[in-house]
Amino acid sequence: MRVTVILPAVRPVSPPDIFFPLTPGGSSIQLRTRWASTASYVPCYTIEYQSLFGHEKYGKQAGEDATWIIKIGPAFGVFLVLATQRPDAQSLPTGVSSNVSQRFALKVMDQTANDMILGTSAYKNGIRATTFRAEVDAGLGYQVGAAAQPLVVRTFYLNLPDTERVAKRARQLREHAGTLSGAALGQDDATPHRDVLADVLDVFGGESGLQWAELTARLERRFPERWAEATADAVSAELRARGVRSVDVKADGQARKGCRRADVEAAVEGS
Q: Class of the 3-154 domain?
Protein backbone atom coordinates (compact mmCIF):
# COMPACT_ATOMS: atom_id res chain seq x y z
CA MET A 1 0.00 0.00 0.00
CA ARG A 2 2.96 2.36 -0.53
CA VAL A 3 0.89 4.32 -3.06
CA THR A 4 -1.38 5.53 -0.26
CA VAL A 5 1.65 7.43 0.97
CA ILE A 6 2.61 8.81 -2.44
CA LEU A 7 -0.79 10.16 -3.43
CA PRO A 8 -1.50 12.43 -0.45
CA ALA A 9 2.10 13.63 -0.60
CA VAL A 10 1.56 15.27 -3.97
CA ARG A 11 -1.89 16.62 -3.18
CA PRO A 12 -1.53 20.08 -1.60
CA VAL A 13 -4.50 21.81 -0.01
CA SER A 14 -3.82 24.83 -2.20
CA PRO A 15 -1.58 24.23 -5.24
CA PRO A 16 -0.02 27.71 -5.39
CA ASP A 17 0.98 27.53 -1.72
CA ILE A 18 2.92 24.35 -2.31
CA PHE A 19 4.42 24.84 -5.74
CA PHE A 20 4.76 28.60 -6.26
CA PRO A 21 4.31 31.78 -4.17
CA LEU A 22 1.71 33.33 -6.49
CA THR A 23 -0.09 36.55 -5.79
CA PRO A 24 -3.93 36.42 -5.72
CA GLY A 25 -5.44 36.18 -9.16
CA GLY A 26 -2.57 34.24 -10.72
CA SER A 27 -3.79 32.30 -13.75
CA SER A 28 -3.21 28.64 -14.61
CA ILE A 29 -1.12 29.82 -17.57
CA GLN A 30 1.17 31.65 -15.18
CA LEU A 31 1.38 28.53 -13.06
CA ARG A 32 2.40 26.36 -15.96
CA THR A 33 4.87 28.92 -17.25
CA ARG A 34 6.56 29.26 -13.89
CA TRP A 35 6.60 25.50 -13.36
CA ALA A 36 8.20 24.91 -16.78
CA SER A 37 11.18 27.07 -15.84
CA THR A 38 11.70 25.79 -12.30
CA ALA A 39 10.61 22.18 -11.93
CA SER A 40 10.88 18.73 -13.48
CA TYR A 41 8.27 16.08 -14.22
CA VAL A 42 7.06 13.94 -11.32
CA PRO A 43 5.54 10.64 -12.48
CA CYS A 44 3.51 8.66 -9.94
CA TYR A 45 3.15 4.99 -10.87
CA THR A 46 0.40 2.80 -9.41
CA ILE A 47 0.78 -0.83 -10.45
CA GLU A 48 -2.19 -3.20 -9.94
CA TYR A 49 -4.35 -0.26 -8.90
CA GLN A 50 -7.30 -2.49 -8.02
CA SER A 51 -5.52 -3.32 -4.76
CA LEU A 52 -5.44 0.37 -3.88
CA PHE A 53 -8.86 1.55 -5.02
CA GLY A 54 -10.53 -1.59 -3.68
CA HIS A 55 -9.00 -1.25 -0.23
CA GLU A 56 -11.66 -1.31 2.48
CA LYS A 57 -10.17 1.57 4.47
CA TYR A 58 -8.17 3.69 2.02
CA GLY A 59 -9.83 2.95 -1.34
CA LYS A 60 -12.34 5.81 -1.40
CA GLN A 61 -9.81 8.45 -0.36
CA ALA A 62 -7.25 7.11 -2.83
CA GLY A 63 -9.82 7.44 -5.63
CA GLU A 64 -10.49 11.05 -4.71
CA ASP A 65 -6.78 11.82 -4.52
CA ALA A 66 -6.13 10.15 -7.86
CA THR A 67 -8.94 12.10 -9.53
CA TRP A 68 -7.53 15.34 -8.08
CA ILE A 69 -4.04 14.58 -9.42
CA ILE A 70 -5.37 13.70 -12.89
CA LYS A 71 -7.23 17.01 -13.08
CA ILE A 72 -4.71 19.37 -11.50
CA GLY A 73 -1.35 17.58 -11.57
CA PRO A 74 -0.33 18.13 -15.22
CA ALA A 75 -0.28 21.91 -14.68
CA PHE A 76 2.56 21.31 -12.24
CA GLY A 77 4.32 18.46 -14.01
CA VAL A 78 2.75 15.72 -11.86
CA PHE A 79 1.42 12.79 -13.86
CA LEU A 80 -0.40 9.72 -12.56
CA VAL A 81 0.14 6.41 -14.38
CA LEU A 82 -2.31 3.60 -13.52
CA ALA A 83 -1.85 -0.01 -14.58
CA THR A 84 -3.70 -3.27 -13.96
CA GLN A 85 -4.13 -6.73 -15.43
CA ARG A 86 -7.75 -6.99 -14.25
CA PRO A 87 -9.82 -3.94 -15.23
CA ASP A 88 -13.42 -3.93 -14.05
CA ALA A 89 -16.07 -1.48 -12.88
CA GLN A 90 -15.40 -2.17 -9.20
CA SER A 91 -11.64 -1.60 -9.34
CA LEU A 92 -11.58 1.79 -11.09
CA PRO A 93 -13.43 4.81 -9.64
CA THR A 94 -15.68 6.66 -12.09
CA GLY A 95 -13.88 9.95 -11.42
CA VAL A 96 -10.60 8.39 -12.48
CA SER A 97 -11.85 6.54 -15.56
CA SER A 98 -13.71 9.58 -16.89
CA ASN A 99 -10.83 12.04 -16.51
CA VAL A 100 -7.73 10.27 -17.77
CA SER A 101 -6.35 11.79 -20.97
CA GLN A 102 -4.21 8.90 -22.23
CA ARG A 103 -5.49 5.35 -22.47
CA PHE A 104 -3.66 2.20 -23.53
CA ALA A 105 -4.83 -1.41 -23.64
CA LEU A 106 -3.00 -4.60 -24.52
CA LYS A 107 -5.12 -7.67 -25.20
CA VAL A 108 -8.19 -7.89 -22.99
CA MET A 109 -10.76 -10.67 -22.78
CA ASP A 110 -14.13 -8.94 -23.04
CA GLN A 111 -16.07 -5.79 -23.91
CA THR A 112 -16.33 -4.60 -20.30
CA ALA A 113 -12.57 -4.61 -19.78
CA ASN A 114 -12.08 -3.03 -23.19
CA ASP A 115 -14.38 -0.08 -22.44
CA MET A 116 -13.09 0.38 -18.89
CA ILE A 117 -9.66 1.17 -20.33
CA LEU A 118 -10.33 2.69 -23.73
CA GLY A 119 -13.52 4.56 -22.86
CA THR A 120 -17.29 4.13 -22.99
CA SER A 121 -18.55 2.70 -26.32
CA ALA A 122 -15.01 2.07 -27.58
CA TYR A 123 -15.93 -1.53 -28.36
CA LYS A 124 -19.06 -0.52 -30.31
CA ASN A 125 -16.98 1.98 -32.28
CA GLY A 126 -14.58 -0.73 -33.40
CA ILE A 127 -11.74 0.01 -30.98
CA ARG A 128 -11.33 -3.53 -29.77
CA ALA A 129 -8.31 -4.74 -27.83
CA THR A 130 -10.07 -8.10 -27.71
CA THR A 131 -8.94 -8.78 -31.29
CA PHE A 132 -5.24 -9.07 -30.44
CA ARG A 133 -4.00 -12.63 -30.55
CA ALA A 134 -2.28 -14.15 -27.54
CA GLU A 135 1.52 -14.35 -27.97
CA VAL A 136 1.33 -13.59 -31.70
CA ASP A 137 0.45 -9.92 -31.06
CA ALA A 138 2.41 -9.58 -27.82
CA GLY A 139 3.33 -5.93 -27.29
CA LEU A 140 0.62 -4.56 -29.56
CA GLY A 141 -2.08 -2.36 -28.06
CA TYR A 142 -4.64 0.35 -28.68
CA GLN A 143 -3.67 3.88 -27.67
CA VAL A 144 -6.34 6.53 -27.28
CA GLY A 145 -5.61 10.21 -26.66
CA ALA A 146 -2.18 10.57 -28.27
CA ALA A 147 -3.55 11.44 -31.71
CA ALA A 148 -6.79 12.55 -33.34
CA GLN A 149 -7.76 8.91 -33.87
CA PRO A 150 -7.06 5.76 -31.82
CA LEU A 151 -3.86 4.02 -32.87
CA VAL A 152 -2.56 0.47 -32.76
CA VAL A 153 1.00 0.79 -31.48
CA ARG A 154 3.85 -1.52 -30.60
CA THR A 155 5.17 -1.12 -27.08
CA PHE A 156 8.58 -2.71 -27.47
CA TYR A 157 11.09 -4.26 -29.78
CA LEU A 158 14.35 -5.23 -28.11
CA ASN A 159 17.07 -6.97 -30.05
CA LEU A 160 19.94 -8.66 -28.22
CA PRO A 161 22.29 -5.63 -28.04
CA ASP A 162 19.45 -3.42 -26.74
CA THR A 163 18.48 -6.05 -24.17
CA GLU A 164 22.06 -6.34 -22.94
CA ARG A 165 22.28 -2.56 -22.48
CA VAL A 166 19.01 -2.50 -20.53
CA ALA A 167 20.11 -5.39 -18.32
CA LYS A 168 23.51 -3.80 -17.66
CA ARG A 169 21.94 -0.48 -16.67
CA ALA A 170 19.39 -2.25 -14.46
CA ARG A 171 22.17 -4.08 -12.65
CA GLN A 172 24.08 -0.85 -12.09
CA LEU A 173 21.00 0.71 -10.50
CA ARG A 174 20.42 -2.34 -8.31
CA GLU A 175 24.06 -2.33 -7.23
CA HIS A 176 23.88 1.34 -6.33
CA ALA A 177 20.72 0.73 -4.30
CA GLY A 178 22.18 -2.35 -2.61
CA THR A 179 19.24 -4.55 -3.59
CA LEU A 180 21.08 -7.41 -5.30
CA SER A 181 21.21 -10.77 -3.56
CA GLY A 182 21.46 -14.48 -4.14
CA ALA A 183 22.21 -15.67 -7.67
CA ALA A 184 22.49 -12.07 -8.93
CA LEU A 185 25.61 -11.77 -6.74
CA GLY A 186 26.97 -15.14 -7.82
CA GLN A 187 25.73 -16.82 -4.67
CA ASP A 188 24.02 -20.19 -4.45
CA ASP A 189 22.73 -22.35 -1.63
CA ALA A 190 26.28 -23.45 -0.83
CA THR A 191 27.62 -19.90 -0.64
CA PRO A 192 28.07 -18.67 2.94
CA HIS A 193 25.73 -15.80 3.79
CA ARG A 194 27.71 -12.59 4.04
CA ASP A 195 27.45 -10.09 6.85
CA VAL A 196 28.64 -6.82 5.40
CA LEU A 197 29.36 -5.22 8.77
CA ALA A 198 31.40 -8.16 10.08
CA ASP A 199 33.30 -8.56 6.82
CA VAL A 200 34.12 -4.86 6.62
CA LEU A 201 35.45 -4.77 10.18
CA ASP A 202 37.55 -7.82 9.41
CA VAL A 203 39.37 -6.08 6.55
CA PHE A 204 39.74 -2.64 8.14
CA GLY A 205 42.94 -3.60 9.89
CA GLY A 206 44.42 -0.66 11.77
CA GLU A 207 42.83 1.97 9.51
CA SER A 208 40.38 4.47 10.94
CA GLY A 209 38.79 5.03 7.55
CA LEU A 210 38.81 3.47 4.08
CA GLN A 211 37.70 4.78 0.72
CA TRP A 212 35.03 2.71 -1.02
CA ALA A 213 37.34 1.48 -3.80
CA GLU A 214 40.01 0.28 -1.38
CA LEU A 215 37.44 -1.30 0.95
CA THR A 216 35.88 -3.19 -1.95
CA ALA A 217 39.27 -4.45 -3.13
CA ARG A 218 40.08 -5.71 0.38
CA LEU A 219 36.74 -7.49 0.67
CA GLU A 220 37.26 -9.24 -2.66
CA ARG A 221 40.77 -10.37 -1.68
CA ARG A 222 39.78 -11.54 1.80
CA PHE A 223 36.39 -13.08 0.95
CA PRO A 224 36.40 -13.92 -2.78
CA GLU A 225 33.55 -16.41 -2.34
CA ARG A 226 31.30 -13.63 -1.05
CA TRP A 227 32.60 -10.42 -2.63
CA ALA A 228 33.96 -11.44 -6.03
CA GLU A 229 32.99 -8.87 -8.69
CA ALA A 230 31.47 -6.54 -6.09
CA THR A 231 31.56 -2.85 -6.98
CA ALA A 232 32.29 0.14 -4.77
CA ASP A 233 28.73 1.37 -5.32
CA ALA A 234 27.29 -1.95 -4.16
CA VAL A 235 29.44 -2.04 -1.00
CA SER A 236 28.58 1.58 -0.25
CA ALA A 237 24.86 0.94 -0.71
CA GLU A 238 24.87 -2.11 1.56
CA LEU A 239 26.68 -0.26 4.33
CA ARG A 240 24.53 2.85 4.02
CA ALA A 241 21.46 0.64 4.27
CA ARG A 242 22.83 -0.58 7.61
CA GLY A 243 23.31 2.96 8.90
CA VAL A 244 26.97 3.58 7.99
CA ARG A 245 27.58 7.10 6.69
CA SER A 246 29.39 7.85 3.43
CA VAL A 247 32.03 10.44 4.31
CA ASP A 248 35.20 11.94 2.89
CA VAL A 249 38.25 9.80 3.62
CA LYS A 250 41.74 11.05 2.80
CA ALA A 251 44.33 8.62 1.40
CA ASP A 252 47.50 9.30 -0.58
CA GLY A 253 46.75 13.01 -0.45
CA GLN A 254 43.31 12.65 -2.02
CA ALA A 255 39.91 12.81 -0.34
CA ARG A 256 37.24 10.46 -1.70
CA LYS A 257 34.05 8.97 -0.35
CA GLY A 258 34.34 6.05 2.02
CA CYS A 259 33.48 5.11 5.60
CA ARG A 260 34.89 5.30 9.11
CA ARG A 261 35.62 2.29 11.27
CA ALA A 262 33.84 3.96 14.20
CA ASP A 263 30.63 4.23 12.17
CA VAL A 264 30.78 0.55 11.22
CA GLU A 265 31.32 -0.43 14.86
CA ALA A 266 28.38 1.76 15.90
CA ALA A 267 26.18 0.04 13.29
CA VAL A 268 27.20 -3.37 14.64
CA GLU A 269 26.28 -2.33 18.18
CA GLY A 270 22.94 -0.99 17.00
CA SER A 271 22.00 -4.05 14.96
A: alpha beta
